[in-house]
Amino acid sequence: MNPQEQINQLTDQLNHYSFLYYQTATSEISDFEFDKLLEKLSDLEKLHPDFVREDSPTHRVGGTISKEFESVTHRFPMLSLGNTYNAQELADFDERVRKGLNDEPYEYICELKFDGVALSMWFENGVLTRGVTRGDGVRGDDITANVKTIRTLPLNIKAKNMPVSFEVRGEGFMPLSSFENLNKEREDIGEQLLANPRNAASGTFKMQDSGVVAKRKMDCYIYQFLSENEIFATHEESLIEMKELGFNVSPTWKKCHNIEEVLAFINHWDTERHNLPLNTDGIVIKLNSFAQREVLGYTAKSPRWAIAYKYPSESASTLLESVSYQVGRTGNITPVANLKPVLLAGTTVKRASIHNANEIERLDLYLGDYVFVEKGGEIIPKITNVDLSKRKDNLEKVIFPENCPECGTSLIRKEGEANHYCPNEKGCPPQIKGKIEHFIQRKALNIENLGTETIDLFYKRGLVKSPADLYDLKREDLGGLEGFKEKSIQNILKGVEKSKEIPFKQVLFGIGIRFVGATVAEKLASYFNNIDAMAKATQEELLQVPEIGERIAQSVVDFFQNADNQEYIARLKSAGLKFTHEAIEIVVEGDTLAGKTFVISGTFQNFERDDLKIKIEANGGKVLSGVSGKLNYLVAGSEAGPSKLEKAQKLGVQIISEEEFITMLEV
Ligand SMILES: NC(=O)c1ccc[n+]([C@@H]2O[C@H](COP(=O)([O-])OP(=O)(O)OC[C@H]3O[C@@H](n4cnc5c(N)ncnc54)[C@H](O)[C@@H]3O)[C@@H](O)[C@H]2O)c1
Ligand SMILES: [Zn+2]
């Protein structure tokens, strides 16, 4: 291949990876490999400037803008960062800075490189007016409503000495705890898990429904202040002042006077960063003085006064021994690689997920291959690629099975879905056992003393094939079981008995309707009050329930139309489970709000929504569901529905804040 062909090939290849990375949040190669290819292209371009293509990834910021949001032109371009992977490249950077500044003294500020999405927040007269993504660096998506759901982001800056208009930038992220909760919820309802917090964050910030974004408890670390006239002399000053103003500046930054101190910072955080509430993938080293930054300037893609040092993502090579196929509660089939144990980032890895059939095809796996496993931002290690240099002849190709490995039923793959699943809901053992495990979990029927092994045993003995069978269990049935002492038998039966007191919303979650997670079950329970009303509801009626969309509505309708499910519910009913919603008893506190009507919208600092409702009713007020001309007050929280606000304004309904509501109570 001649240099021009090579440049063409690399350009196409890198643009392809970038497209996947930014638009579909998937990576076909590791970031390290991507950056190596980019460096190779950049080197070739320097040698052959005539062949540089217009669409070269070396001089463009990677993202794009999407159709779903209004696009906004940045007042100051939002650039990327140059990156390095080793101390030598870092020393080279330092050398360039030193030369560029003609040996003047200088300082660096080191920060962690937070692994999320870059956000830009505009303030006018102290008020947050816009939140914008980086996009292609010149224009980004206006995602103001979503950005406003970030609790740590002040919506209003009171300080007097601020410019009329200014901008702060930072990294929006999904805290690891939110990420884990979200995946737990998805697991509960049999949905595909999200790969890593960064993808989850970039997907979440681009959602249309900011109510859903609010629930995901996103956060943002602020690391940059911008205004037309520079008001700070150094980056350090700006960080201190922004913190003072109430912005969420991570306290992890440090001033360094030379590259040795920078290296010490890098070493310190290499291990320490794993204790932070979010993923980080490196360190950002920035020149402290703004005047000196001006001197060094920018390339088309990144500032010359800053650089990112990326921690090499830990990767190991090991033998692929076999692939097993796990069947989930909802019939999802997940291929899992069984590996020769290998040490990776301090833990021994024996298994790695391969996600689905597409991934098997992409990797082109053979049993006996040596594969690279990486932990990256992911919780479960994954196979990134095959070490082809070690591939032997006559290996057996890994082929995704056509039949369920547990029950033999032909697998199904719905159009447009990546996953295969086993449709034999009623007869496939792991699906049956999975449903029972789902049913007894703490958030559902909370039956203590029943573990996976016991369920397995009960199932094998033909004692329990459905959660409903639990309620038919008798002392005598369990008496003959090996290893069961009288005491544990009694405990199990007691636990089953106690579950009859569990509130309807938890029972509804426990019965395991597809896509009905704990929160959705709660919404449905309080809307319909009992299971019969819900079972009779049409798709249209279900869509009236707050936050219930097409997919859930359809799944609920399908569930209740199925004769087996009807019998299942009937059995649970006759066992005495609660199928009626018991409204919380309201304890009267006073009558300050007597005769007044309220609609609640958004989220609140001092109350959960339900508590706010109780508070209003306890003080004699009435809560309505929709805004009308007769309504007295709309209590608007931090992400109040725009349509409700608009309607209230039109109809002249008084809109009050949470604080104003609290003051009303104090009168
Ligand atoms: N694997 C793939 O297929 C693939 C494809 C495309 C890009 N990538 C990866 O993405 C990288 C390019 O992404 P990029 O352009 O967003 O660059 P980048 O993520 O390497 O660096 C720039 C970004 O860092 C973030 N950042 C975090 N903490 C910061 C701090 N303290 N100060 C300043 N900025 C901070 C900002 O969001 C900024 O936009 C590549 O180097 C590559 O590793 C991978
Ligand atoms: Zn099966």
TrEMBL record:
<comment type="similarity">
    <text>Belongs to the NAD-dependent DNA ligase family. LigA subfamily.</text>
</comment>
<keyword id="KW-0436">Ligase</keyword>
<dbReference type="GO" id="GO:0003911">
    <property type="term" value="F:DNA ligase (NAD+) activity"/>
</dbReference>
<dbReference type="GO" id="GO:0006281">
    <property type="term" value="P:DNA repair"/>
</dbReference>
<dbReference type="InterPro" id="IPR003583">
    <property type="entry name" value="Hlx-hairpin-Hlx_DNA-bd_motif"/>
</dbReference>
<keyword id="KW-0227">DNA damage</keyword>
<dbReference type="InterPro" id="IPR012340">
    <property type="entry name" value="NA-bd_OB-fold"/>
</dbReference>
<dbReference type="GO" id="GO:0046872">
    <property type="term" value="F:metal ion binding"/>
</dbReference>
<dbReference type="Pfam" id="PF01653">
    <property type="entry name" value="DNA_ligase_aden"/>
</dbReference>
<feature type="binding site">
    <location>
        <position position="286"/>
    </location>
    <ligand>
        <name>NAD(+)</name>
    </ligand>
</feature>
<dbReference type="Pfam" id="PF00533">
    <property type="entry name" value="BRCT"/>
</dbReference>
<keyword id="KW-0464">Manganese</keyword>
<dbReference type="InterPro" id="IPR010994">
    <property type="entry name" value="RuvA_2-like"/>
</dbReference>
<feature type="binding site">
    <location>
        <position position="134"/>
    </location>
    <ligand>
        <name>NAD(+)</name>
    </ligand>
</feature>
<dbReference type="InterPro" id="IPR004150">
    <property type="entry name" value="NAD_DNA_ligase_OB"/>
</dbReference>
<dbReference type="InterPro" id="IPR013839">
    <property type="entry name" value="DNAligase_adenylation"/>
</dbReference>
<dbReference type="InterPro" id="IPR033136">
    <property type="entry name" value="DNA_ligase_CS"/>
</dbReference>
<feature type="binding site">
    <location>
        <position position="422"/>
    </location>
    <ligand>
        <name>Zn(2+)</name>
    </ligand>
</feature>
<feature type="binding site">
    <location>
        <begin position="31"/>
        <end position="35"/>
    </location>
    <ligand>
        <name>NAD(+)</name>
    </ligand>
</feature>
<dbReference type="GO" id="GO:0006260">
    <property type="term" value="P:DNA replication"/>
</dbReference>
<keyword id="KW-0479">Metal-binding</keyword>
<dbReference type="GO" id="GO:0003677">
    <property type="term" value="F:DNA binding"/>
</dbReference>
<feature type="active site" description="N6-AMP-lysine intermediate">
    <location>
        <position position="113"/>
    </location>
</feature>
<feature type="binding site">
    <location>
        <position position="310"/>
    </location>
    <ligand>
        <name>NAD(+)</name>
    </ligand>
</feature>
<keyword id="KW-0235">DNA replication</keyword>
<keyword id="KW-0520">NAD</keyword>
<feature type="binding site">
    <location>
        <begin position="80"/>
        <end position="81"/>
    </location>
    <ligand>
        <name>NAD(+)</name>
    </ligand>
</feature>
<dbReference type="InterPro" id="IPR001679">
    <property type="entry name" value="DNA_ligase"/>
</dbReference>
<feature type="binding site">
    <location>
        <position position="111"/>
    </location>
    <ligand>
        <name>NAD(+)</name>
    </ligand>
</feature>
<feature type="binding site">
    <location>
        <position position="171"/>
    </location>
    <ligand>
        <name>NAD(+)</name>
    </ligand>
</feature>
<dbReference type="InterPro" id="IPR004149">
    <property type="entry name" value="Znf_DNAligase_C4"/>
</dbReference>
<keyword id="KW-0234">DNA repair</keyword>
<keyword id="KW-0460">Magnesium</keyword>
<dbReference type="InterPro" id="IPR036420">
    <property type="entry name" value="BRCT_dom_sf"/>
</dbReference>
<protein>
    <recommendedName>
        <fullName>DNA ligase</fullName>
        <ecNumber>6.5.1.2</ecNumber>
    </recommendedName>
</protein>
<comment type="function">
    <text>DNA ligase that catalyzes the formation of phosphodiester linkages between 5'-phosphoryl and 3'-hydroxyl groups in double-stranded DNA using NAD as a coenzyme and as the energy source for the reaction. It is essential for DNA replication and repair of damaged DNA.</text>
</comment>
<dbReference type="Pfam" id="PF03119">
    <property type="entry name" value="DNA_ligase_ZBD"/>
</dbReference>
<dbReference type="InterPro" id="IPR041663">
    <property type="entry name" value="DisA/LigA_HHH"/>
</dbReference>
<dbReference type="Pfam" id="PF03120">
    <property type="entry name" value="OB_DNA_ligase"/>
</dbReference>
<dbReference type="InterPro" id="IPR013840">
    <property type="entry name" value="DNAligase_N"/>
</dbReference>
<dbReference type="GO" id="GO:0005829">
    <property type="term" value="C:cytosol"/>
</dbReference>
<feature type="binding site">
    <location>
        <position position="407"/>
    </location>
    <ligand>
        <name>Zn(2+)</name>
    </ligand>
</feature>
